[in-house]
Amino acid sequence: MSHSQKRSKSIHLHQLRKAFALKPLAVGVAGIMLTACGGSREQSNIYVSPEDCQQDNPEATGQCLAAYESALEEHNRTAPKFDTQNDCEYEFGNDRCQYLQTSSGSFFMPFMAGYMVSQLLQPRPYYSQPLYTSFSPYSPFRSRWVTSNGYVFDGDIRKRSYSAPSSVFEKKPTVNRTIKRGGFGSSVRAKSSWGSSSSKSKGWGG
Amino acid sequence: MFRMASQPRHNWQQLAAEYGFHFHTMYGEPYWDESAYYQFTLQQIEQDIEDPTAELHQMCLHVVDKVVNSEALLTQCQIPQAHWDFIASSWREKQPSLYSRLDLVYNGQSPAKLLENNADTPTSLYETGFWQWLWLENLVNAGKIARHADQFNSLQEKLVYRFEQLRRQYNYQRIHFSCCEDSVEDRGTVQYLQDCASAAGIDAPFLFVEEIGLSDTGYFTDLDDNAITHCFKLYPWEFMLREEFGDALEAADVGWLEPPWKSVLSNKALLPLLWQAFPNHPNLLPAFFEQDKHRTTGGKWIKKPLFSREGANISLLNDDDSPTTLSDGPYGEEGFILQQYHPLPRYGDQYVLIGSWLVDDLPAGISIREDRSLITQDLSRYLPHIIL
Hints:
The complex is a heterodimer of chains A (206) and B (388).
Chain A: H1 13-16, E1 41-47, H2 50-56, H3 61-78, H4 85-92, E2 97-102, E3 105-110, E4 114-118, E5 127-132, E6 146-147, E7 161-165, E8 178-181, H5 186-192
Chain B: E1 2-5, H1 12-19, E2 25-26, E3 29-30, E4 36-40, H2 42-68, H3 71-76, H4 84-92, E5 99-105, E6 113-118, H5 125-141, H6 155-170, E7 176-178, H7 184-199, E8 213-215, E9 220-221, E10 230-233, H8 237-240, H9 249-252, E11 255-257, H10 262-265, H11 270-277, E12 287-289, E13 301-305, E14 315-317, E15 323-325, E16 336-340, E17 346-347, E18 350-359, E19 362-371, E20 381-383, E21 385-387
Parallel strand pairs in B: 4-21, 7-10, 10-11
Antiparallel strand pairs in B: 1-4, 2-3, 5-6, 5-18, 8-9, 12-16, 13-14, 13-16, 14-15, 17-18, 18-19, 19-20
């Protein structure tokens, strides 16, 4: 056993102070700025079309097209989806959304604005990921690149080259809509309805 | 190990308001109590608590390994058969854990004895990791406690470090944090964990357990219909497995904290299984399943349900085998275990229970709770401690 200090050396008190803490404007978007992340990174480039990619990689026209197509496929599967055109345009801007009819219903989703590829010229499989941007004045994504996971890239839309953590290229689970809520938590109601003078209802931690 | 009377900080309630410690008084009764503290020697902490805590944890993991590989033991632990694969594969995949708390009986002299393992949903985390740390800092700075006094409490440091590991090694970039509605204490505990995760660079949104949704594609969703890929839940596995969304768990592919294999440890079947695997270990109390009652040899025994919370549904079997109900409750339908009666040590008119924390498998500090009654119930008080 070490005989050094047995308690936390320092605690940043300001991080735990709650009374004057400002609430973030948009939870979930405040999210992960890529520069703040650790983990392995991939040098990645963003292109807005296969031609854009080919110009940059004249020796890889086939890969550019294939990467575009796989991003488009992923886009159809995982793009943020909305019930109404209004909701979608509020986030992404006027005329920036497309209508989509699928077996599980109809939606509105933003157009794919670009795609990010890495390792295009490596013998290893390259990664490709659809990207979006917003023209809406109400959106924190305005003039930024954002993935369907909601990762916002730091820097504005003109920046086309990033060292991105590999997690950006992970496939996002498909969700079209939530069909039900409240499927967890019922035991609480059941057990809490039991009344006793010796104990009072509280949480379920132990 | 002493109980020392102490002058409460004049501004502690104001500090509590500033830092968002809202459950220092619950149901009109004090919960946080700084009118006294417990004092340990370094040797007591390291040899009697820290080392046994690490060892007990390894012994518990040994039991998990046995249980998930045995249909007979899974049955004996009352784990629903439909979830055996879900739980066993979480163990085989070595899905990472975050924390747990062992409840120990310790009087400063005899070996600490394991009463229970709160491996799934332990609380009193914020009071331990932060609030008692701040108390010592304040009292040392005010000259009330010697500057070289220390505290067994690296909980916050280790939690932040663990979250960093989860982010870097296991790719936990965003964790949804969740607990039940209507509990200030649970919400406070979860908020603290969110703060620790944020400090480690993890995106840490919150939603209530009751708000979790299920998508058309079989994933769990948050209120914005985002898929939940990683989730901390301060909600017991034994409930989740039996509720409506229990059937969706396997396909939903969530990285859970705590992982599903913790359902083996939060189950009181652990206690007889530990005694079977490590008989006469100095830090264990003899324990048996109720059906093996004939193997208990005289003396007093405590009868506890396999699943229970807040010390509910406990009775004492006296020397003549007559039961005395110590606490009522809604539990017990899944069966009972017997554990040898080992009274909590008494300081003045207070009975004392020590909670010994682990972050993953590293001992990380203690919390001390006092109660006027023999079973530490919900309304016991939390007292700080020092090492001197």
